[in-house]
Amino acid sequence: MGQTEPSEDLKISLESHLLDTLRPLEAIIPSDLAKTLSSYTCSSPPPTIPYSVLQSVSQWARTTGLDALHSQSPPLDPHAYSMISLLAGTTTSPERKFGAYVPPKGLDEMEAAKAAERKSITALLNALLSIFGCAFAVWWAADRLGWKNEWRVLLALFVAIVIAVTEAILYLLWQSRRSSSTSKRVKSRRKVDPSRHKKDEGPADINPGEKSESITTSVDETTDAGLRRRQ
C-alpha cells in the first residue's frame, strides 16, 4: 500500500469505538496487515495507533476488500472504514504537548505598546542629554576656576559616570513600574464585564403592555384585510 512519508510520524488515539471497528478485520485482511493491526488491537492495546495503519486499512476496504466485507455475517459496511469514519472521535498526536495559544494583541494594546516605546526612547535621550550636559557644565566651570586640563577632564568624567548610574537606576525603576501597571491593565481588560453585556442587549421595554397591544392590533388588521380580499 502506498503511504505518504508525513503520515508515518502521526499517531491517532485508539479509542474504544475504533477498536470495535478494527477487530473484526483481523480474520479477513491480508496476513501482513493483520499482523500489524493485531499488535495494536490486542488485549492490552497501546493508547495510540499509527496513521499509516489506518490508511492501509481504509485503502484495502475501498478496493480489494469490498467482497470480503460483504461476505461476512452480518456484512460489514465499507463506509465504516473510510478515513473520515475511522478518525471520527479520535485525537491526533495525543502524546505531543503543544504550546499554549497566544491570542493576537488588540488595537488598544498595540497603541499602548507604541506609546510606551516612544516614552522609553524619550527617557533614554533625556538621560544622554543629562550626562553630556552635566559633564560639559562641570568641565566649563572648572575651566573658569583655572583648573588644569587633566583635572577638568577627570572631574567631568566622574560627574558623567555618577549621572549615568543615577539615570540607569531611575530608568530601571520606571521600567519595572510601567511593566507591572501594563500587565494589570491587560488583565482587567480581559475580564468579562456583566454590565456591558446588559447594555448591549438594548434598552428594556418601558411599557410591555403597549408592545403587546401594538402586536395584537397589527395581527387584527392583517386578519381583517385578508377577510376583505377573500370576500
TrEMBL record:
Positions with biased composition (Basic and acidic residues): 191-213
Top-level taxon in the UniProt lineage: Eukaryota
InterPro entries: ATPase_Vma12
GO process annotations (BP): vacuolar proton-transporting V-type ATPase complex assembly
Transmembrane annotation, as ranges: 123-142, 154-174
Keyword Transcription regulation: no
The keyword Glycoprotein is assigned to this record: no
Record region (Disordered): 184-231
Keywords: Membrane, Transmembrane, Transmembrane helix
Matches recorded under Pfam families: Vma12
Protein name listed in UniProt: Endoplasmic reticulum-based factor for assembly of V-ATPase
